[in-house]
Amino acid sequence: MNPTTSAASSSGSGIPPSVLQPSALEILPSRASSIAEAGKAGGPLNCGKTSVAGSVSQRACVFCGSRVVLYPIADALHIVHGPIGCAAYTWDIRGSQSSGPQLFRNSFSTDMQELDVVYGGEKKLERALLQLIAKHQPKAAFVYGTCIVGLIGDDVGAVCKRVAAVTGIPVLSVASEGFKGTKKDGYRAACEAVFHLIGTGDTTGISPYSLNLMGDFNIAGESWVVRGYLERMGVEVVATITGDGRVDAIRRCHGAKLNLVQCSGSMTHLAKKMQEVYGVPFKRVSFFGIEDMSAALYDVAKHFGSPELMEKAREVVREEVAKIYPQLRTWREDLKGKKAAIYVGGAFKAFSLVRALRTLGMRTALVGTQTGDASDYETLREMCDPGTIIVDDSNPIELAKFCLEQDVDLFIGGVKERPIAYKLGIGFCDHNHERKECLAGFEGMANFAREVHASVMSPVWNFVPRRATRKAEGLKPEGLKSVEPDLACGPQSAITNLKSAIVRAVA
Ligand code: SF4
User: Fold this and answer.
1) Beta-carbon contacts of residue 178 (< 8 Å; ≥ 6 apart)
2) β 35-37/389-392 pair status
3) Going by CA atoms, what residue is nearest to atom 5 of ligand 1?
4) How far does residue 93's CA lie from ligand 1's centre (Å)?
5) What is the pLDDT of residue 8?
């Protein structure tokens, strides 16, 4: 179908003709300072701010940030105080695993209605908490404030105190009203809430070689994989705070000798507080990719200053790399020179992915995060190849534009990026919390490489018009013979094509 015809015939859809022009997919001028190019001079990236009005940000709200962090505490009750829609962020759209209790998989909500907004929702919340605690006997309860609760001014803290006094368990208010900042503010609110639990348990018997895992969400059992490596080294894991978490373990985790922070965006605030109050130092690490996973184990051994631990760390790395390397080399042969786009929540994951893609012979052409800070983006500028686009708090139009301009072969992102990739005819790899496959550790690297290889090398991409026209005429897939030349020859046309697809969808 000719995109021009498609646009013209869509006038009945009510979309103004100007919206259908390619220029409508240009970036907003106010977003320009949040985008940079590696290898080009420029000041610090504009980041860490609330999203620009008119830019449909890929970020989630403050409440979602809190919920992501606290939800994997499996034996706690999690209740969303707000309209039912907020509770759509349930366990079942995320892949955090529990080795025991499954209470966290229930999505409880006070389901606030019009009358609650007019007369206040405190009584309803109190009733809900008392009923749910009596029924499920949780070890603690977290109450998440949402936008409407912030607007009407319910005193959630007072309700929590009353319920805690009656039930005898910690009932913690999470100040996560959706509108009051960025997803990062939600992480902070979660850290503040969980900090009330820390320091309330007995630390007797904790090993001098011990640590807490922070910011690993046990997606598809990843915390168990990392825990396995650490235990083979002889290191005790006291608490996995954000993955397969347990209230009792968190209560005594101030007795650990180190905090290992994997998702720095979400957990650095808590790690800093624990350092300040309990003197527990922390290290920022990543468990994704061979280089970063190995570095994390070596960092732990170095921290404890034990040659024996270091030797064991080397042994683990040697054994694990030997298992996966031959296969990685085979995949690398096929993937050499392919290009990828990365859009993820935190910067540390982005760093790891840039390195992991290099291990596979691939180049990162676009990299962005939801919560990176200025120094993170500086690091990305230094580590990426010249020409790589670096972007903070992006939106679908920008991501589509850069993916097409850079002509990437793969998009690595989450549930919100998947449709962008598929609409553009680009392979996709899910690296967010929704996935059900372990991508951490050495075995995770093998899984990642397998998935990347399968996605990038799939013959289906040969049928994408812009790709098909680059092939010799004889190789052109049969079904594309009727494609209009301007539909099939490059990024700008592809943008028009994308807009036509949007128009068709709307019509
Ligand atoms: S933005 Fe507000 S209303 Fe929307 S999900 Fe977040 S807390 Fe709920």
Assistant:
1) 61, 62, 63, 64, 86, 146, 147, 150
2) antiparallel
3) 86
4) 16
5) 32
Residue 493 has what pLDDT?
45
What is the rounded CA–CA span in Å between residue 70 and residue 68? 6
Q: Which residues line ligand 1 (CB under 6 A)?
A: 61, 63, 82, 86, 146-147, 178-179
Of 179, 182, 183, which is best to mutate to test ligand 1, by the most ligand atoms within 8 angstroms of its C-beta?
Answer: 179
Pocket test for ligand 1, best of 147, 156, 182 (most atoms within 8 A of CB): 147
Summarize pLDDT for 189-199 with one digit per residue, the tens: 999 999 999 99
What are the C-alpha distances in Å from 75 to residues 80, 132, 138, 467, 501? Answer: 16, 13, 6, 50, 45
Residue whose CA is at the smallest distance from ligand 1 atom 3:
147
Q: Which of 80, 90, 107, 146 to mutate to test the pocket of ligand 1 (most atoms within 8 A of CB)?
A: 146
pTM over 0.85? The answer is no
- Tell which atom from ligand 1 comes closest to the C-alpha of 82: 8
Tell me, what amino acid is at 11? S
Closest ligand 1 atom to residue 60 Cα is 6
Least confident stretch, 74-83, 316-325, 370-379, 497-506: 497-506
3-state helix, strand, coil in the chain (%, to 5): 55, 15, 35
CA distance 417 to 423: 10
CB-based contact 257:210 (threshold 8 Å)? yes
User: Which tokens sit at 216?
Assistant: 């690993």
Spatial CB neighbours of 220, under 8 Å, sequence gap ≥ 6: 95, 97, 435, 436, 437, 438, 439
- Distance set, CA 324 to CA 232, 289, 292, 319 (Å): 18, 12, 15, 9
Does the structure show a pLDDT above 90 at 265? Answer: no
Rounded to the nearest angstrom, the distance between the alpha carbon of 64 and the centre of ligand 1 is 8
Domains of the chain, earliest start first: 12-56+324-468 (3.40.50.1980), 62-181 (3.40.50.1980), 210-319 (3.40.50.12380)
Residue 60 pLDDT > 90: no
DSSP H helical ranges for 336-417: 347-359, 374-383, 396-406
Query: Which residue owns the Cα nearest ligand 1 atom 8?
Result: 86
Whether 94 has a pLDDT exceeding 90, the answer reads no
Q: What are phi and psi of 151, to 5 degrees?
A: -70, -40
CA of 84 to the centre of ligand 1 (A): 10
**pLDDT reading at 15 higher than 50:** no
